[in-house]
Amino acid sequence: MLLQQLVNGLTLGAVYTLIALSFSLVMGILGVLNLAIAELFMLGGYFGFAAILAKLPLPVALLAGMAGAALVAAVIERVGYQPFRDAPVVTPMLSTLGFSIILQNVATNIWGSDPLQLPDEVFGARFTLGPVSASAMQLTIVGATVVLVALLAFVVQRTALGRALRAVAENRDVARLLGVSAGPLTLLAFMLSGALAGAAGVLIGLHYAAITPYIGVEIGLKAIAVMVVGGTGRIWGALIAGPLIGVAEVMTTAYGGSQIRDFVVYGLMIVILLLRPQGLLGGARTEQGPRV
Amino acid sequence: MTGKQQPRLEAAGITKMFGGIRALNDISLEVLPKQIVGIIGPNGAGKTTTFNVITGAYRPSTGEVRLDGKAVTAEPSHLIARAGISRTFQNIRLFGDMTVWEHLLVAQPHSDFTLRRLLPTRWADPQAFRRAEEILEFLKLADVKDRIARSLPYGIQRRVEIARAISARPKLLLLDEPVAGMNHDEADDIRRLILTLRDSGLSILLIDHDMAFVMNLCDYLYVLDFGVMIAQGRPDQIRSNPVVLDAYLGHAT
Question: In this predicted complex, what is the ipTM?
């Protein structure tokens, strides 16, 4: 029973990890909380559903969700972030809040507010190993998350683009003085972030076999909690915090009752904010010199 | 100074206002190819502000900055960097999580978005890779290649910053107090390094407080005081200039 809950918790945690990485990519590089990520996640789910219902294979659905969400993210960057680049950080945040509500509204108008259901027979297979049983979908979610995180880690840590992204994240002014052009990298960060959120949307939509225009709100907020627990300045903090919160949530529901579930998740966030505001993984961020 | 030679850098009539404060007042200076030029002056004289105007971090209120005769005034700083001006900082500004090696690759000339840039650098840009290896050797940083730069001793961090700056392939290198906080041996290392860089074809503009260091190293000096250029000349001329002695040397030592 405990092992089974662990498997369920890790599945949920995998999705939280993806969305939290999505938030922290933009947060880490621009210091801006892109609130529309919750809706990019929801849209990714709808795009993925559309692909599945059109009888396309799952990898194609996943790519469709990622590409669609990345494109919407690019629009948000150009219209909702770029013009406010030099404004106080709360300004672009408010504009992404506006985008978030508009996108929810658009989704409601296109797909209606009732849950869109997936036929049962899709991904119904289950695998059993001793006392633990996992659905094909759960394994797909965890597998896809591992692959996506590995890809992201490769891009960020090993390539010229990733180095430039990290340089801009660390100190935009110094990076520019070295010839790194921050503008295109900002767009790239938004699109990568959108693709991750879109992938998470496809995966969770298929997991629940249902999706609504409001699915982003609850899970998006939870992903923000995951990001905070992992450390807002360190994008890889989500790798620990995502599974942790997923498991904590599932365990709380299983053993304590679902009515205290959110209490545990957000309580953990507040405890972290109070005791370790840099997050589980965040080191002490000292010697940040004044900006140029 | 020979009248005919095209200066590498010209700053002409630079004034920079911050609100009502005149931080720089009609500053003009030039750096010739393969010349080492120093800017000296008391704290708050406007030396670093001059650097910030040259690199495009600040837009001057009036005046023009030219690199090889071409105006680069207030261009976006990444374009000025690509045009050939690179700098180091008085308070070292290395990237927190990057190794020394990564610092050498991050400043390599950029072509923004090509899929090639998603390959590991060794294959994507073998030229950049080789150049980074050369700089590593040249600045004697090979031993610490894979260390996180900020975890290294102060003197080595300064070298990493210079290495990062020259990996951007500048024509003009700006050094903001390159030997601040260094002991005599370390400072002498940096002095020899600067001479070698000059011999390799770089022009150098530097700020420092260490008078002996500046006098020994520079071909030409500018003296700033409260945003005004109060003197300029060869080190021996500056050393005996009464205005300079009064404004700077007098209360600096």
Answer: 0.87
